[in-house]
Amino acid sequence: MTRLVVLALAVTLLIQHRAWAGEFTVHVPSELATIQQAINVAPPLDFEIIVAPGTYNEAIDSLGKSFHLRSSGGPEVTIIDASGLGASVVTVTDADSASPAMVIEGFTITGGDAGQGGGMFIQNASPTVVDCIFVNNSAALSGGAIYTDSANPTITGCTFENNSAPSGGAIRSSNGFVTVTSSIFLSNAANHGGAMHISGGSNANIDGCTFESNEAVEIGDLVGLLGGAILIEGTTSAEIVDSEFRDNTASIGGGIANFADGFFVLNTHFEDNSAGNGGGVFHSSALGSINGSTFANNTADQSGGGIFITPESAPIGLGGNFFCANQPDDVSGPSNQHQNEFSDSCDVTYHVPDDYPTIQQAIDDSANGTVIVVAPGTYNEPIDTAGVVVYLQSSGGPENTIINVGGMGTSAITIANGEGPDTIIEGFTFTGGQAQFGGGMLIDGTSPTVIDCIFINNMATIGGGIAVINGGSVQIPGDAFIQNNTA
Prior knowledge:
Layout: H1 2-20, E1 25-28, H2 35-41, E2 48-51, E3 54-56, E4 60-61, E5 68-71, E6 78-81, E7 90-93, E8 103-105, E9 108-110, E10 113-116, E11 120-123, E12 128-130, E13 133-135, E14 138-142, E15 146-149, E16 154-156, E17 159-161, E18 171-174, E19 177-181, E20 184-186, E21 189-190, E22 196-199, E23 203-207, E24 210-212, E25 215-216, E26 230-232, E27 237-241, E28 244-246, E29 256-258, E30 262-266, E31 269-271, E32 274-277, E33 281-283, E34 288-291, E35 294-296, E36 299-303, E37 307-309, E38 316-319, E39 322-324, E40 331-332, E41 335-338, E42 341-343, E43 349-352, H3 359-364, E44 370-374, E45 377-379, E46 383-384, E47 390-394, E48 401-404, E49 413-415, E50 424-426, E51 429-431, E52 434-437, E53 441-444, E54 449-451, E55 453-456, E56 459-462, E57 466-469, E58 480-483
Parallel strand pairs: 1-2, 2-5, 3-6, 4-7, 5-8, 6-9, 7-11, 8-12, 9-13, 10-14, 11-15, 12-16, 13-17, 15-18, 16-19, 17-20, 18-22, 19-23, 20-24, 21-25, 22-26, 23-27, 24-28, 26-29, 27-30, 28-31, 29-33, 30-34, 31-35, 32-36, 33-37, 34-38, 35-39, 37-40, 38-41, 39-42, 43-44, 44-47, 45-48, 46-49, ...
């Protein structure tokens, strides 16, 4: 025992010496065995804790300190698991942690089980959470993955999957400003807000996020199943931009249920969401607008397959939206409409670059069955079909229509979200790809159709031109030219 105390004291003195010398880094587990031990000895100023790959069975508390906690190997191999501890996996509280220097980066956070914030509890703090995976966390009251109170967190590049709570299956935000960008919410559940519940004077900015298969279901004692993906209520404002809502369900508001006066949606896609009223969006407030968005194949048992606005609401502003095949109707309730387009069929055609400057933007705004016609040219962008049934074709053939991702370190095209043979790629050259699997094309558990394409000068560990993994398959009727790819 004496030897262990002396060793711990020596490590503490070493870290303090580093801090005095301007070196603010400690490594886990090579220098300290647990993340919490590293936090305990960290000075109350900017400090870096680097965590090696592994599973760390602990619940950690920031102790009001400001530091950069990051993994060296990424979230897939660096896991903080609080299973059986009956606590939030990560707790970030108090004013010192409000420093912008507070960053948590690159972890899987799982096994949390708390009253509020099963995965992460944030109060009076403003951390940045980057590239984390929150999976299988739960809360008895609010925020299965994250609960924020009087806090201003920024969450970017994170994935939330299979988290649950009565309020806010993934995130519950109260009294603060939460910013969520480039994140994925998949199969989360709650009575109120299957993925997110924003309330209590909290504001939210949601940009570039995907909400899929989230559900408002009976979990706790709260009345009503509101907001399959998001519930917004109270003196709250929310801005939702460049996002996607697919296959979310609730009694009210399959995609979003809004009861707040500051509600603004721009360039967002709602498809295959369902509810009793408001398959895509349910709106009940004095102020709101939805512009430049797509509502496709959303359904309501009663009214407002696309959007339902309560009769007592002020007219919502609707401009430049596209509505197709929503049942039983596209829009129900008072609205001020300007240059919206309505169609009984979602089989539409987009042109790149005339309608959209990039191929990916066209895909992101597509409903199932969309045809995307790409003009001749070189497009320096990686493409992900993102689970959409599209017919992506060039108008000038593969020699004249080139997808070049040289220097980007990624597959030229990724097809990995359940696509079948009705997703068709025709008439492109794919080049410059560099990835672990499929430098030119990665087919991961899917079965697309590829016609008249050229794969040239791509690199990968497996499948320089094309990699087909995890039970996937590919149909190649006609020609496919594969040359000078390496693996």
